[in-house]
Amino acid sequence: MLTDPPDRFAPYDEAGQPQVPIAGYPNTVRRHPCSLPLFRRPVTRTELTGPLDLTPKLQPGDSNLAVSPEGRPAIGQLIHISGRVLDEDGRPVRNAVVEIWQANAAGRYFNPLDQRDAPLDPNFIGNGRALTDANGDYAFFTIRPGAYPVPNSGRWWRPPHVHFSILGPGSLSRLVTQMYFPGDPLNVHDRLLNSLPDPAARELLVAREVSTEEVDGEWLAYRHRLVLRGRHATPPLP
Amino acid sequence: MSTNAPLPPTGWHTIGPFFPRTFFKEGDNDLTRLSPDAPPTARGERIILHGRVLEEGGGPCVNAVLEAWQADAGGRFRHPLDPRHADADPCFLGWGRAWTDEAGRYEFQTVMPGGYADAAGMRAPHVNLSVLGSGIMRRLVTTVFFPEFALVNGQDPILLALPEDGLRRRLVAAEEGAADSIRRFRFDLVLHGSPEEETPFFVD
């Protein structure tokens, strides 16, 4: 069990977080409070704590998305995504649940709600779940997702991206984000990425390419760090 | 790694429209069991917390993901930041996940949470809810209270963070009777509406 969970949660820096509404994404209006402000609340025990062992419920073990359950390879460029989950003090977050999901190489999701014309790959479901290890590290094999146009959005395309959902050691540590690929020409036009006002914060959503000389295998490798909210009261506050 | 300056937390994004349905397993919305095949906890009163998530115009917010977090029936969390965590119910996880159907409906099976004394004041029995969904770029967080604890609700520091009674009443679930002797509580989440109907949400 975790002995030193973070116990200080400062408000987010708004420049590093998405601002809404986003043009061409009507749900950022329809599903966002418009009459009431978000109310400030004190941080109490219930916000500081969170489930520490979710594995009986959210079972890990799907860390290779590139192969179907029957052992057949998915179509696409094989990639490896790994990285460390840290808190704001730079301490590794162990036993965090990391969930990812993504489109296939043609830019289509294996989801009945995605009805675009792009082909489905029967060997690519495109979601996985893993736990961070003692160093806070996670890793997935998958294929590089394709870009896709957002329907009825005025020719806005989503760049290739991987969705991440991380459950850390407190309910205030929760993070849902997306990872982008370095050098993709669609990144600078993406309205979700650009909803973060601070360019440095946007850059933190882009993975780092690992030199092919460092990779001992037939895949391209990316490193992606994730920082969950939360600091530690050591040394204690005055 | 050591650093003096804090690292900035990674920026949030929406889950988008395609959060995998395959992530959901039967029993994810049942807080009374540690896993789908585990027996339900014997401590506390089983209840159902359910309702609808509504978007602009009162239409259903389809395919939203709700996550619940709450204390056990004795008001304890299985977490080292709870000084009474050693006595927390070992058969109660306190966390569950539900997703809304085509009518925007969700349901959690859980136990009536206990209240407890907190450094910030007496906490009334409550369930924390987070809403994730396409277009919700950062989760929306709120807290659900129960009507039978009017006295302690009136002292709860989170309810008191709201400026008026009308808003506080909106965070209290409605008791709807019982089915199979399990009491049902209804709590609708209005994400976007008039000042008279919108659900109060908190800064995360």
UniProtKB/TrEMBL annotation, chain A:
Pfam families: Dioxygenase_C
Keyword Oxidoreductase in annotation: yes
Biased composition (Basic and acidic residues): 1-11
Positions of the UniProt region annotated as Disordered: 1-27
Residue span, Intradiol ring-cleavage dioxygenases domain: 81-109
UniProt keyword terms in alphabetical order: Dioxygenase, Oxidoreductase
Name this polypeptide is given: Protocatechuate 3,4-dioxygenase subunit beta
Native source organism of the sequence: Roseomonas populi
TrEMBL record, chain B:
NCBIfam families: protocat_alph (TIGR02423)
GO MF: protocatechuate 3,4-dioxygenase activity
Record-listed E.C. numbers: 1.13.11.3
Enzyme class: oxidoreductase
Domain of life, source organism: Bacteria
Organism: Roseomonas populi
Keywords tagged on the record: Dioxygenase, Oxidoreductase
Residue intervals of the Intradiol ring-cleavage dioxygenases domain: 17-193
InterPro entries assigned to the protein according to its UniProt record, in alphabetical order: 3_4-PCD, Intradiol_dOase_C, Intradiol_dOase_core, Intradiol_RC_Dioxygenase, Protocat_dOase_a
Family according to the record: Belongs to the intradiol ring-cleavage dioxygenase family.
Protein name, per record: Protocatechuate 3,4-dioxygenase subunit alpha
CDD domains recorded: 3_4-PCD
Gene3D superfamilies referenced in this protein's UniProt entry, alphabetically: Aromatic compound dioxygenase (2.60.130.10)
Pfam family membership, one: Dioxygenase_C
Gene: pcaG
